[in-house]
Amino acid sequence: MAGSWKEKVVSPDKVLDKIEPGMSIFVGTGAAEPRTLVKHLLSSEKPNLRDLEVIQLISLGDTLPLEERYSEKYRLKTFSSGWIASEAVRTGRVDLIPCRFSRIPGLIQSGAIRIDVAFIQLTPPNDQGWASLGITVDTARKAMEQASLVVGEINPQAPWTLGDTLVNVADFDYLIEAELPPITFSRWPTDSVMDQVAANVAKLVENGSCLPFATGSLFEALAPHLMTKKHLSIHSLFITDPLMDLIQSGAVTNKNKTFFRGKSVVSYAIGTPELMKWLDRNPLVEFQGIDVVGDPKVIGQHDRFTLIVPIRKVDLTGAIAMHAGRSNVAFGVGELQGFLAGVELSREGRTICALPSRNLKGESNFKISIEDYPNQFNFREVLDMVVTEYGIAYLKRISIRERALALIDIAHPDDRAELVRQAKEANLIYPDQIYFPEAGHFYPRDLEHSHIFKDKLLVRFRAIKPSDEDQMRRLFYRFSEEDVYYRYFSPVKTMPHKKMQTYVNIDYRNTLSIVGLVGPKGEGLLIAEARYVRVPGEPYADVAFIVDEEYQGYGIASYMYQLLIQAAKKNGIEGFTADVLPSNQSMLQVFKKGPYPFTSKLTAGVYHLTIPFTDQAKGT
Predict the structure, then answer these.
(1) In the prediction, which pLDDT does 81 show?
(2) 208: closest CA among 324, 121, 304?
(3) Domain locations in the chain?
(4) CATH classification code of 442-612
(5) Residues 6 or more apart in contact with residue 40 via CB below 8 angstroms
(6) Is the pTM of this model over 0.85?
(7) What is the model's pLDDT at position 302?
(8) Under a CB-based contact definition with an 8 Å cutoff, are residues 311 and 319 in contact?
(9) pLDDT of res. 1
(10) Which CATH superfamily does the domain covering 2-177 fall into?
(11) Which CATH architecture has domain 192-433?
Protein backbone atom coordinates (compact mmCIF):
# COMPACT_ATOMS: atom_id res chain seq x y z
CA MET A 1 0.00 0.00 0.00
CA ALA A 2 2.87 2.38 0.78
CA GLY A 3 4.20 2.03 -2.74
CA SER A 4 0.80 2.61 -4.31
CA TRP A 5 0.24 6.00 -2.70
CA LYS A 6 3.70 7.19 -3.70
CA GLU A 7 2.75 6.47 -7.27
CA LYS A 8 0.20 9.29 -6.94
CA VAL A 9 2.84 11.86 -6.02
CA VAL A 10 3.30 14.33 -8.88
CA SER A 11 4.69 17.81 -9.38
CA PRO A 12 2.47 20.85 -8.76
CA ASP A 13 2.74 21.70 -12.46
CA LYS A 14 1.07 18.44 -13.44
CA VAL A 15 -1.83 19.23 -11.12
CA LEU A 16 -2.22 22.70 -12.61
CA ASP A 17 -2.37 21.22 -16.12
CA LYS A 18 -5.63 19.50 -15.12
CA ILE A 19 -7.39 22.74 -14.21
CA GLU A 20 -9.64 24.40 -16.76
CA PRO A 21 -10.74 28.05 -16.99
CA GLY A 22 -13.80 28.86 -14.90
CA MET A 23 -13.30 25.99 -12.46
CA SER A 24 -14.18 26.37 -8.80
CA ILE A 25 -11.30 25.39 -6.49
CA PHE A 26 -11.83 24.61 -2.81
CA VAL A 27 -8.70 25.48 -0.84
CA GLY A 28 -8.12 24.11 2.65
CA THR A 29 -8.95 26.64 5.30
CA GLY A 30 -6.92 28.63 7.77
CA ALA A 31 -3.69 27.15 9.06
CA ALA A 32 -4.23 24.08 6.85
CA GLU A 33 -3.99 26.07 3.65
CA PRO A 34 -2.02 23.95 1.11
CA ARG A 35 0.63 26.59 0.65
CA THR A 36 2.68 24.81 -2.00
CA LEU A 37 -0.26 24.28 -4.33
CA VAL A 38 -1.44 27.85 -3.86
CA LYS A 39 2.07 29.23 -4.40
CA HIS A 40 2.42 27.41 -7.72
CA LEU A 41 -1.10 28.41 -8.76
CA LEU A 42 -0.14 32.05 -8.28
CA SER A 43 3.27 31.93 -9.92
CA SER A 44 2.28 29.84 -12.93
CA GLU A 45 1.72 31.54 -16.27
CA LYS A 46 -0.26 28.64 -17.72
CA PRO A 47 -3.02 29.98 -20.00
CA ASN A 48 -5.61 27.61 -18.55
CA LEU A 49 -5.37 29.27 -15.13
CA ARG A 50 -7.84 32.05 -15.84
CA ASP A 51 -11.18 33.14 -14.44
CA LEU A 52 -10.96 30.68 -11.58
CA GLU A 53 -13.14 30.77 -8.50
CA VAL A 54 -11.30 30.04 -5.26
CA ILE A 55 -13.45 29.04 -2.28
CA GLN A 56 -12.00 29.22 1.21
CA LEU A 57 -14.02 29.35 4.41
CA ILE A 58 -11.57 31.51 6.38
CA SER A 59 -8.55 33.12 4.73
CA LEU A 60 -5.61 33.22 7.13
CA GLY A 61 -2.77 32.39 4.80
CA ASP A 62 0.03 34.51 3.44
CA THR A 63 0.05 32.76 0.08
CA LEU A 64 -3.32 33.78 -1.36
CA PRO A 65 -3.01 37.51 -2.09
CA LEU A 66 -6.10 39.50 -2.90
CA GLU A 67 -4.57 42.31 -4.94
CA GLU A 68 -6.21 43.57 -8.11
CA ARG A 69 -3.36 42.18 -10.26
CA TYR A 70 -4.60 38.64 -9.66
CA SER A 71 -8.19 39.40 -10.60
CA GLU A 72 -7.94 37.86 -14.07
CA LYS A 73 -6.56 34.63 -12.64
CA TYR A 74 -8.97 34.07 -9.76
CA ARG A 75 -11.58 35.62 -7.49
CA LEU A 76 -11.93 34.55 -3.88
CA LYS A 77 -15.25 33.56 -2.36
CA THR A 78 -15.22 33.33 1.40
CA PHE A 79 -17.66 32.90 4.27
CA SER A 80 -15.78 35.06 6.76
CA SER A 81 -14.98 38.77 6.53
CA GLY A 82 -12.24 38.60 9.13
CA TRP A 83 -8.45 38.65 8.87
CA ILE A 84 -6.96 39.44 5.44
CA ALA A 85 -10.29 39.29 3.59
CA SER A 86 -11.82 42.20 5.51
CA GLU A 87 -10.55 45.10 3.40
CA ALA A 88 -10.90 43.16 0.15
CA VAL A 89 -14.55 42.40 0.94
CA ARG A 90 -15.18 46.06 1.73
CA THR A 91 -13.69 47.21 -1.58
CA GLY A 92 -15.41 44.53 -3.64
CA ARG A 93 -12.36 42.44 -4.56
CA VAL A 94 -13.63 39.41 -2.66
CA ASP A 95 -17.10 37.88 -2.60
CA LEU A 96 -18.50 37.31 0.88
CA ILE A 97 -21.18 34.62 1.18
CA PRO A 98 -23.30 35.35 4.28
CA CYS A 99 -24.16 31.96 5.73
CA ARG A 100 -24.37 30.21 9.05
CA PHE A 101 -21.20 28.10 9.21
CA SER A 102 -22.95 24.87 10.09
CA ARG A 103 -24.93 25.06 6.84
CA ILE A 104 -21.93 25.34 4.51
CA PRO A 105 -21.24 21.57 4.25
CA GLY A 106 -24.87 21.01 3.22
CA LEU A 107 -24.63 23.69 0.54
CA ILE A 108 -21.54 22.02 -0.87
CA GLN A 109 -23.08 18.56 -0.70
CA SER A 110 -26.22 19.72 -2.52
CA GLY A 111 -24.22 21.41 -5.26
CA ALA A 112 -25.55 24.87 -4.38
CA ILE A 113 -21.89 25.79 -3.95
CA ARG A 114 -20.07 24.16 -6.85
CA ILE A 115 -16.70 22.51 -6.21
CA ASP A 116 -14.67 21.24 -9.19
CA VAL A 117 -11.25 20.93 -7.56
CA ALA A 118 -10.24 20.39 -3.93
CA PHE A 119 -6.76 21.28 -2.61
CA ILE A 120 -6.39 19.63 0.82
CA GLN A 121 -3.46 19.48 3.26
CA LEU A 122 -2.90 16.14 5.00
CA THR A 123 -0.31 14.25 7.01
CA PRO A 124 2.00 11.66 5.49
CA PRO A 125 -0.01 8.43 5.01
CA ASN A 126 0.77 5.34 7.06
CA ASP A 127 1.66 1.96 5.59
CA GLN A 128 -2.02 1.24 4.96
CA GLY A 129 -2.50 4.47 3.05
CA TRP A 130 -4.44 6.28 5.78
CA ALA A 131 -3.72 9.90 6.63
CA SER A 132 -5.16 12.63 8.86
CA LEU A 133 -6.63 15.93 7.73
CA GLY A 134 -4.56 17.46 10.52
CA ILE A 135 -5.36 20.91 11.84
CA THR A 136 -8.52 21.69 9.87
CA VAL A 137 -11.59 19.57 9.25
CA ASP A 138 -14.34 22.18 8.64
CA THR A 139 -15.97 21.00 5.39
CA ALA A 140 -12.96 19.43 3.66
CA ARG A 141 -14.59 16.00 3.46
CA LYS A 142 -17.71 17.35 1.71
CA ALA A 143 -15.51 19.29 -0.74
CA MET A 144 -13.55 16.13 -1.54
CA GLU A 145 -16.77 14.22 -2.21
CA GLN A 146 -18.06 16.82 -4.68
CA ALA A 147 -14.85 17.64 -6.54
CA SER A 148 -13.92 15.89 -9.79
CA LEU A 149 -10.24 16.54 -9.05
CA VAL A 150 -8.97 15.98 -5.49
CA VAL A 151 -5.37 16.85 -4.70
CA GLY A 152 -3.65 16.24 -1.39
CA GLU A 153 -0.63 18.20 -0.20
CA ILE A 154 1.38 15.98 2.13
CA ASN A 155 2.98 18.02 4.88
CA PRO A 156 5.28 16.09 7.24
CA GLN A 157 4.96 18.85 9.85
CA ALA A 158 1.17 18.61 10.07
CA PRO A 159 0.01 16.89 13.29
CA TRP A 160 -1.98 13.68 13.06
CA THR A 161 -5.19 14.69 14.79
CA LEU A 162 -8.03 12.47 15.93
CA GLY A 163 -11.76 12.58 15.26
CA ASP A 164 -13.40 12.82 11.85
CA THR A 165 -9.98 13.35 10.28
CA LEU A 166 -9.15 10.01 8.69
CA VAL A 167 -8.79 9.94 4.90
CA ASN A 168 -7.32 7.37 2.53
CA VAL A 169 -5.01 8.08 -0.37
CA ALA A 170 -7.54 6.28 -2.55
CA ASP A 171 -9.73 9.38 -2.14
CA PHE A 172 -7.12 11.53 -3.92
CA ASP A 173 -6.39 11.78 -7.62
CA TYR A 174 -2.97 13.28 -7.05
CA LEU A 175 -0.62 13.96 -4.18
CA ILE A 176 2.14 16.52 -3.97
CA GLU A 177 4.83 17.01 -1.36
CA ALA A 178 4.73 20.25 0.61
CA GLU A 179 7.59 22.68 0.20
CA LEU A 180 6.46 24.87 3.11
CA PRO A 181 5.47 24.13 6.73
CA PRO A 182 1.88 24.64 7.95
CA ILE A 183 0.93 28.20 8.83
CA THR A 184 1.58 29.00 12.48
CA PHE A 185 0.92 32.10 14.57
CA SER A 186 2.62 33.67 17.55
CA ARG A 187 0.69 34.05 20.76
CA TRP A 188 -1.36 37.23 21.04
CA PRO A 189 -0.02 40.04 23.23
CA THR A 190 -2.07 41.21 26.18
CA ASP A 191 -1.87 43.96 28.80
CA SER A 192 -3.11 44.85 32.27
CA VAL A 193 -6.39 46.29 30.98
CA MET A 194 -7.25 43.17 29.00
CA ASP A 195 -6.21 41.05 31.96
CA GLN A 196 -8.79 42.84 34.13
CA VAL A 197 -11.43 42.43 31.42
CA ALA A 198 -10.62 38.72 31.35
CA ALA A 199 -10.77 38.50 35.15
CA ASN A 200 -14.27 39.98 35.09
CA VAL A 201 -15.34 37.60 32.32
CA ALA A 202 -14.03 34.65 34.34
CA LYS A 203 -16.35 35.61 37.22
CA LEU A 204 -19.27 34.76 34.93
CA VAL A 205 -18.01 31.31 33.95
CA GLU A 206 -19.58 28.79 36.30
CA ASN A 207 -18.10 25.42 37.15
CA GLY A 208 -19.39 22.86 34.66
CA SER A 209 -19.77 25.39 31.84
CA CYS A 210 -19.15 24.52 28.20
CA LEU A 211 -17.04 27.06 26.31
CA PRO A 212 -15.94 27.92 22.80
CA PHE A 213 -12.53 29.56 22.49
CA ALA A 214 -11.10 31.80 19.79
CA THR A 215 -8.00 33.77 18.90
CA GLY A 216 -7.06 37.14 20.31
CA SER A 217 -5.75 38.90 23.39
CA LEU A 218 -8.96 38.40 25.38
CA PHE A 219 -8.68 34.61 25.25
CA GLU A 220 -4.93 34.77 25.83
CA ALA A 221 -5.66 36.66 29.06
CA LEU A 222 -8.73 34.61 29.96
CA ALA A 223 -7.20 31.14 30.16
CA PRO A 224 -5.16 31.72 33.37
CA HIS A 225 -8.26 33.07 35.13
CA LEU A 226 -10.22 29.92 34.29
CA MET A 227 -7.65 27.45 35.58
CA THR A 228 -9.26 27.26 39.03
CA LYS A 229 -12.66 26.33 37.57
CA LYS A 230 -13.92 22.76 37.75
CA HIS A 231 -15.20 20.40 35.06
CA LEU A 232 -15.25 22.80 32.15
CA SER A 233 -16.12 21.46 28.71
CA ILE A 234 -14.95 22.64 25.29
CA HIS A 235 -17.05 22.78 22.11
CA SER A 236 -15.28 25.28 19.90
CA LEU A 237 -14.54 26.08 16.28
CA PHE A 238 -10.94 26.79 17.24
CA ILE A 239 -8.27 25.36 19.48
CA THR A 240 -5.47 27.79 20.32
CA ASP A 241 -2.45 27.96 22.60
CA PRO A 242 -4.32 29.44 25.59
CA LEU A 243 -6.96 26.73 25.23
CA MET A 244 -4.18 24.15 25.22
CA ASP A 245 -2.92 25.70 28.48
CA LEU A 246 -6.39 25.53 29.99
CA ILE A 247 -6.83 21.86 29.07
CA GLN A 248 -3.41 21.03 30.48
CA SER A 249 -4.28 22.80 33.75
CA GLY A 250 -6.91 20.18 34.55
CA ALA A 251 -9.82 22.63 34.59
CA VAL A 252 -11.23 20.98 31.45
CA THR A 253 -12.62 17.47 31.94
CA ASN A 254 -15.54 17.41 29.48
CA LYS A 255 -17.29 15.06 31.90
CA ASN A 256 -20.64 16.88 31.68
CA LYS A 257 -20.93 16.80 27.90
CA THR A 258 -23.84 15.20 26.08
CA PHE A 259 -21.85 14.75 22.86
CA PHE A 260 -18.24 13.53 22.75
CA ARG A 261 -18.00 13.07 26.49
CA GLY A 262 -14.42 13.37 27.69
CA LYS A 263 -13.28 15.13 24.51
CA SER A 264 -12.65 18.77 23.61
CA VAL A 265 -14.38 19.18 20.25
CA VAL A 266 -12.92 21.60 17.69
CA SER A 267 -12.72 22.10 13.94
CA TYR A 268 -9.62 24.26 13.46
CA ALA A 269 -6.23 24.67 15.14
CA ILE A 270 -4.58 28.08 15.05
CA GLY A 271 -1.40 28.72 16.97
CA THR A 272 2.27 28.08 17.54
CA PRO A 273 4.40 25.07 16.57
CA GLU A 274 4.11 24.00 20.22
CA LEU A 275 0.34 23.68 19.81
CA MET A 276 0.77 21.62 16.64
CA LYS A 277 3.17 19.27 18.40
CA TRP A 278 0.79 18.89 21.37
CA LEU A 279 -2.13 18.03 19.08
CA ASP A 280 -0.28 15.17 17.39
CA ARG A 281 -2.23 11.98 18.24
CA ASN A 282 -3.68 13.70 21.32
CA PRO A 283 -6.73 11.70 22.48
CA LEU A 284 -8.12 14.64 24.47
CA VAL A 285 -8.99 16.63 21.34
CA GLU A 286 -11.64 15.57 18.81
CA PHE A 287 -11.70 17.31 15.42
CA GLN A 288 -15.12 17.43 13.77
CA GLY A 289 -16.67 19.21 10.81
CA ILE A 290 -18.33 22.58 11.16
CA ASP A 291 -21.71 20.96 10.53
CA VAL A 292 -21.22 19.34 13.95
CA VAL A 293 -19.28 22.00 15.84
CA GLY A 294 -21.46 24.87 14.63
CA ASP A 295 -24.82 23.10 14.75
CA PRO A 296 -27.15 24.99 17.14
CA LYS A 297 -28.95 21.77 18.07
CA VAL A 298 -25.65 20.16 19.13
CA ILE A 299 -24.50 23.30 20.94
CA GLY A 300 -27.83 23.57 22.74
CA GLN A 301 -27.46 20.08 24.20
CA HIS A 302 -24.61 21.34 26.37
CA ASP A 303 -25.78 22.89 29.65
CA ARG A 304 -24.33 26.26 30.65
CA PHE A 305 -22.97 26.93 27.19
CA THR A 306 -21.14 30.23 27.68
CA LEU A 307 -20.39 32.19 24.52
CA ILE A 308 -17.69 34.84 25.03
CA VAL A 309 -17.43 37.36 22.21
CA PRO A 310 -14.69 40.01 21.94
CA ILE A 311 -16.22 43.16 20.48
CA ARG A 312 -14.96 46.50 19.22
CA LYS A 313 -17.78 48.90 20.15
CA VAL A 314 -21.11 48.83 21.95
CA ASP A 315 -23.89 51.39 21.90
CA LEU A 316 -26.04 52.27 24.89
CA THR A 317 -28.87 50.00 23.77
CA GLY A 318 -26.67 46.89 23.51
CA ALA A 319 -26.01 46.80 19.77
CA ILE A 320 -22.41 45.82 19.04
CA ALA A 321 -19.76 46.23 16.37
CA MET A 322 -17.38 43.32 15.90
CA HIS A 323 -13.67 43.61 15.27
CA ALA A 324 -12.55 43.79 11.66
CA GLY A 325 -9.47 42.72 9.73
CA ARG A 326 -6.67 40.89 11.53
CA SER A 327 -8.33 41.62 14.88
CA ASN A 328 -11.09 39.15 14.03
CA VAL A 329 -10.70 35.55 12.93
CA ALA A 330 -13.33 33.65 14.81
CA PHE A 331 -16.37 35.87 15.08
CA GLY A 332 -17.78 36.90 11.77
CA VAL A 333 -21.54 36.93 11.41
CA GLY A 334 -21.60 33.44 9.90
CA GLU A 335 -19.55 31.89 12.69
CA LEU A 336 -21.51 33.70 15.39
CA GLN A 337 -25.06 32.97 14.24
CA GLY A 338 -25.01 29.26 14.95
CA PHE A 339 -23.48 29.71 18.38
CA LEU A 340 -26.00 32.39 19.36
CA ALA A 341 -28.84 30.10 18.36
CA GLY A 342 -27.23 27.28 20.33
CA VAL A 343 -26.90 29.42 23.45
CA GLU A 344 -30.63 30.11 23.34
CA LEU A 345 -31.27 26.34 23.36
CA SER A 346 -28.77 25.61 26.14
CA ARG A 347 -30.01 25.28 29.71
CA GLU A 348 -28.47 28.22 31.60
CA GLY A 349 -26.68 29.31 28.42
CA ARG A 350 -25.40 32.86 28.25
CA THR A 351 -23.77 35.29 25.83
CA ILE A 352 -21.05 37.60 27.13
CA CYS A 353 -19.53 40.43 25.11
CA ALA A 354 -16.23 41.85 26.32
CA LEU A 355 -14.13 44.88 25.45
CA PRO A 356 -11.82 47.44 27.05
CA SER A 357 -13.59 50.66 27.96
CA ARG A 358 -11.31 52.62 25.62
CA ASN A 359 -9.37 51.89 22.45
CA LEU A 360 -5.61 52.32 22.05
CA LYS A 361 -6.13 55.97 21.10
CA GLY A 362 -7.85 56.67 24.42
CA GLU A 363 -11.29 57.01 22.80
CA SER A 364 -14.39 55.52 24.40
CA ASN A 365 -15.59 52.20 23.04
CA PHE A 366 -19.10 53.10 24.23
CA LYS A 367 -21.16 54.99 21.67
CA ILE A 368 -24.60 56.50 21.45
CA SER A 369 -24.78 54.79 18.03
CA ILE A 370 -22.58 52.32 16.11
CA GLU A 371 -24.17 52.94 12.71
CA ASP A 372 -20.87 54.23 11.28
CA TYR A 373 -18.89 51.13 12.25
CA PRO A 374 -18.45 47.99 10.13
CA ASN A 375 -19.34 44.48 11.27
CA GLN A 376 -22.44 45.59 13.15
CA PHE A 377 -24.44 42.92 14.87
CA ASN A 378 -27.75 43.86 16.38
CA PHE A 379 -28.73 41.01 18.65
CA ARG A 380 -29.89 42.96 21.68
CA GLU A 381 -32.47 40.29 22.49
CA VAL A 382 -29.89 37.56 23.17
CA LEU A 383 -27.08 39.62 24.68
CA ASP A 384 -26.88 38.83 28.38
CA MET A 385 -23.82 40.70 29.63
CA VAL A 386 -21.21 43.24 28.58
CA VAL A 387 -17.88 43.26 30.40
CA THR A 388 -15.07 45.82 30.67
CA GLU A 389 -12.19 46.29 33.09
CA TYR A 390 -14.62 48.37 35.20
CA GLY A 391 -17.22 45.70 35.73
CA ILE A 392 -20.16 43.80 34.33
CA ALA A 393 -23.39 45.16 32.86
CA TYR A 394 -26.25 42.66 33.13
CA LEU A 395 -28.67 43.39 30.30
CA LYS A 396 -31.06 40.47 30.26
CA ARG A 397 -34.75 41.33 30.65
CA ILE A 398 -34.23 45.01 31.42
CA SER A 399 -35.44 48.08 29.56
CA ILE A 400 -33.42 50.22 27.16
CA ARG A 401 -33.22 52.94 29.83
CA GLU A 402 -31.87 50.48 32.38
CA ARG A 403 -29.44 49.11 29.79
CA ALA A 404 -28.08 52.57 29.07
CA LEU A 405 -27.42 53.20 32.77
CA ALA A 406 -25.87 49.75 33.25
CA LEU A 407 -23.54 50.25 30.29
CA ILE A 408 -22.55 53.75 31.39
CA ASP A 409 -21.63 52.21 34.76
CA ILE A 410 -18.86 50.14 33.11
CA ALA A 411 -17.53 52.76 30.68
CA HIS A 412 -14.31 54.55 31.52
CA PRO A 413 -15.04 56.90 34.46
CA ASP A 414 -13.82 59.92 32.49
CA ASP A 415 -16.27 59.16 29.67
CA ARG A 416 -19.42 58.60 31.73
CA ALA A 417 -20.56 62.21 32.13
CA GLU A 418 -20.50 62.73 28.36
CA LEU A 419 -22.34 59.45 27.79
CA VAL A 420 -25.02 60.58 30.27
CA ARG A 421 -25.36 63.85 28.36
CA GLN A 422 -25.68 62.07 25.02
CA ALA A 423 -28.12 59.53 26.44
CA LYS A 424 -30.35 62.36 27.68
CA GLU A 425 -30.30 63.99 24.25
CA ALA A 426 -31.24 60.68 22.65
CA ASN A 427 -34.06 60.18 25.20
CA LEU A 428 -32.51 56.91 26.37
CA ILE A 429 -32.57 57.95 30.04
CA TYR A 430 -34.54 60.41 32.17
CA PRO A 431 -33.90 64.04 31.18
CA ASP A 432 -33.25 64.88 34.84
CA GLN A 433 -30.88 61.94 35.40
CA ILE A 434 -28.19 63.00 37.85
CA TYR A 435 -24.62 61.81 37.70
CA PHE A 436 -21.55 62.43 39.85
CA PRO A 437 -18.55 62.48 37.47
CA GLU A 438 -16.06 61.72 40.22
CA ALA A 439 -17.98 58.71 41.53
CA GLY A 440 -16.65 56.34 38.88
CA HIS A 441 -13.09 56.81 40.11
CA PHE A 442 -14.01 55.83 43.66
CA TYR A 443 -16.27 52.83 43.07
CA PRO A 444 -15.03 50.22 45.59
CA ARG A 445 -14.64 47.07 43.49
CA ASP A 446 -12.97 45.34 46.43
CA LEU A 447 -16.42 45.04 48.07
CA GLU A 448 -17.62 42.63 45.37
CA HIS A 449 -17.86 39.11 46.78
CA SER A 450 -20.28 36.34 47.74
CA HIS A 451 -21.15 34.82 51.10
CA ILE A 452 -23.12 31.70 52.00
CA PHE A 453 -25.55 31.98 54.91
CA LYS A 454 -27.54 29.25 56.62
CA ASP A 455 -29.65 26.93 54.48
CA LYS A 456 -27.03 27.40 51.73
CA LEU A 457 -28.34 30.87 50.86
CA LEU A 458 -25.76 32.54 48.61
CA VAL A 459 -25.83 36.34 48.58
CA ARG A 460 -23.65 38.50 46.34
CA PHE A 461 -22.52 41.84 47.73
CA ARG A 462 -21.24 44.97 46.03
CA ALA A 463 -21.51 48.74 46.21
CA ILE A 464 -24.69 50.28 44.87
CA LYS A 465 -24.68 51.69 41.31
CA PRO A 466 -26.86 54.30 39.57
CA SER A 467 -28.30 51.48 37.46
CA ASP A 468 -29.75 49.91 40.64
CA GLU A 469 -32.49 52.53 40.75
CA ASP A 470 -35.26 50.27 39.51
CA GLN A 471 -34.18 47.34 41.69
CA MET A 472 -34.16 49.60 44.76
CA ARG A 473 -37.62 50.90 43.93
CA ARG A 474 -38.90 47.33 43.67
CA LEU A 475 -37.33 46.52 47.03
CA PHE A 476 -39.05 49.52 48.60
CA TYR A 477 -42.45 48.39 47.35
CA ARG A 478 -41.91 44.93 48.85
CA PHE A 479 -41.51 46.42 52.34
CA SER A 480 -44.29 46.17 54.88
CA GLU A 481 -45.59 49.41 56.38
CA GLU A 482 -43.73 48.51 59.57
CA ASP A 483 -40.40 48.06 57.76
CA VAL A 484 -40.88 51.35 55.93
CA TYR A 485 -41.52 53.11 59.22
CA TYR A 486 -38.49 51.48 60.87
CA ARG A 487 -36.28 52.66 57.99
CA TYR A 488 -37.67 56.14 57.30
CA PHE A 489 -39.44 57.03 60.60
CA SER A 490 -42.50 58.10 58.63
CA PRO A 491 -45.23 56.33 56.64
CA VAL A 492 -43.60 56.82 53.21
CA LYS A 493 -45.99 55.54 50.54
CA THR A 494 -44.13 56.12 47.28
CA MET A 495 -40.57 56.18 46.01
CA PRO A 496 -40.59 57.91 42.60
CA HIS A 497 -37.62 58.32 40.30
CA LYS A 498 -36.77 61.79 41.63
CA LYS A 499 -36.34 60.46 45.15
CA MET A 500 -34.67 57.18 44.30
CA GLN A 501 -32.09 58.52 41.86
CA THR A 502 -30.64 60.74 44.59
CA TYR A 503 -30.48 57.65 46.79
CA VAL A 504 -28.51 55.47 44.35
CA ASN A 505 -26.12 58.16 43.07
CA ILE A 506 -23.46 58.44 45.76
CA ASP A 507 -19.80 59.44 46.02
CA TYR A 508 -18.61 56.19 47.73
CA ARG A 509 -16.60 58.15 50.29
CA ASN A 510 -18.87 60.32 52.41
CA THR A 511 -21.77 58.08 51.48
CA LEU A 512 -21.43 54.36 50.89
CA SER A 513 -24.18 51.86 50.16
CA ILE A 514 -23.73 48.09 49.92
CA VAL A 515 -26.42 45.94 48.34
CA GLY A 516 -27.05 42.20 48.53
CA LEU A 517 -28.46 40.16 45.65
CA VAL A 518 -29.67 36.58 45.32
CA GLY A 519 -30.36 34.45 42.28
CA PRO A 520 -28.48 33.94 39.01
CA LYS A 521 -26.00 36.59 37.99
CA GLY A 522 -27.71 39.03 35.72
CA GLU A 523 -31.16 37.99 36.87
CA GLY A 524 -30.60 38.45 40.59
CA LEU A 525 -33.00 40.06 43.04
CA LEU A 526 -31.80 42.92 45.23
CA ILE A 527 -32.82 41.89 48.76
CA ALA A 528 -30.78 44.04 51.14
CA GLU A 529 -29.12 47.41 51.46
CA ALA A 530 -26.86 48.91 54.10
CA ARG A 531 -25.39 52.39 54.02
CA TYR A 532 -23.59 55.01 55.95
CA VAL A 533 -23.73 58.78 55.42
CA ARG A 534 -20.99 60.87 56.96
CA VAL A 535 -22.20 63.51 59.40
CA PRO A 536 -21.05 66.90 58.02
CA GLY A 537 -18.06 68.21 59.92
CA GLU A 538 -17.87 65.11 62.12
CA PRO A 539 -15.69 61.97 62.04
CA TYR A 540 -18.81 59.82 62.45
CA ALA A 541 -21.32 58.49 59.92
CA ASP A 542 -24.98 57.63 60.32
CA VAL A 543 -25.78 54.01 59.46
CA ALA A 544 -28.99 52.23 58.40
CA PHE A 545 -30.04 48.82 57.04
CA ILE A 546 -32.95 47.23 55.26
CA VAL A 547 -33.49 43.55 54.43
CA ASP A 548 -36.34 42.05 52.43
CA GLU A 549 -38.78 40.41 54.87
CA GLU A 550 -38.41 37.06 53.09
CA TYR A 551 -34.68 37.07 53.84
CA GLN A 552 -34.71 38.30 57.42
CA GLY A 553 -33.33 35.98 60.07
CA TYR A 554 -30.33 34.79 58.04
CA GLY A 555 -27.86 37.20 59.62
CA ILE A 556 -27.56 39.31 56.48
CA ALA A 557 -27.84 42.65 58.29
CA SER A 558 -25.16 41.65 60.81
CA TYR A 559 -22.85 40.61 58.00
CA MET A 560 -23.42 43.86 56.12
CA TYR A 561 -22.77 45.81 59.32
CA GLN A 562 -19.30 44.26 59.42
CA LEU A 563 -18.75 45.22 55.77
CA LEU A 564 -19.74 48.82 56.46
CA ILE A 565 -17.38 49.02 59.43
CA GLN A 566 -14.44 47.80 57.36
CA ALA A 567 -15.20 50.22 54.53
CA ALA A 568 -15.79 53.16 56.87
CA LYS A 569 -12.47 52.68 58.64
CA LYS A 570 -10.67 52.71 55.27
CA ASN A 571 -12.33 56.06 54.55
CA GLY A 572 -11.19 57.59 57.84
CA ILE A 573 -14.52 57.38 59.65
CA GLU A 574 -14.08 56.92 63.40
CA GLY A 575 -17.47 55.53 64.30
CA PHE A 576 -21.17 55.19 63.51
CA THR A 577 -24.35 56.70 64.83
CA ALA A 578 -27.80 55.22 64.34
CA ASP A 579 -31.39 56.05 65.21
CA VAL A 580 -33.49 52.99 66.09
CA LEU A 581 -37.07 52.69 67.31
CA PRO A 582 -37.37 50.71 70.57
CA SER A 583 -39.75 48.28 68.87
CA ASN A 584 -37.16 47.46 66.20
CA GLN A 585 -35.54 44.76 68.30
CA SER A 586 -33.98 42.95 65.34
CA MET A 587 -31.94 46.02 64.42
CA LEU A 588 -30.91 46.63 68.02
CA GLN A 589 -29.65 43.04 68.09
CA VAL A 590 -27.47 43.72 65.03
CA PHE A 591 -25.67 46.47 66.92
CA LYS A 592 -25.48 44.43 70.14
CA LYS A 593 -23.81 41.57 68.24
CA GLY A 594 -21.42 43.93 66.48
CA PRO A 595 -17.71 44.13 67.27
CA TYR A 596 -17.84 47.51 69.02
CA PRO A 597 -19.74 48.56 72.15
CA PHE A 598 -22.15 51.45 71.90
CA THR A 599 -23.91 53.98 74.05
CA SER A 600 -27.58 54.78 73.63
CA LYS A 601 -29.83 57.66 74.54
CA LEU A 602 -33.62 57.57 74.33
CA THR A 603 -34.96 60.86 73.00
CA ALA A 604 -38.52 61.48 71.79
CA GLY A 605 -39.16 57.75 71.58
CA VAL A 606 -36.07 56.96 69.50
CA TYR A 607 -32.79 55.41 70.61
CA HIS A 608 -29.80 57.40 69.41
CA LEU A 609 -26.80 55.05 69.27
CA THR A 610 -23.16 56.11 69.21
CA ILE A 611 -20.67 53.43 68.17
CA PRO A 612 -17.01 54.53 68.29
CA PHE A 613 -14.48 52.31 66.51
CA THR A 614 -12.41 51.89 69.64
CA ASP A 615 -9.03 50.18 69.62
CA GLN A 616 -10.47 47.60 71.99
CA ALA A 617 -13.34 45.81 70.26
CA LYS A 618 -15.64 43.50 72.18
CA GLY A 619 -14.15 40.12 72.97
CA THR A 620 -10.54 41.19 72.33
Answers:
(1) 54
(2) 304
(3) 2-177, 192-433, 442-612
(4) 3.40.630.30
(5) 12, 13, 15, 16
(6) yes
(7) 96
(8) no
(9) 45
(10) Glutaconate Coenzyme A-transferase (3.40.1080.10)
(11) 3-Layer(aba) Sandwich (3.40)
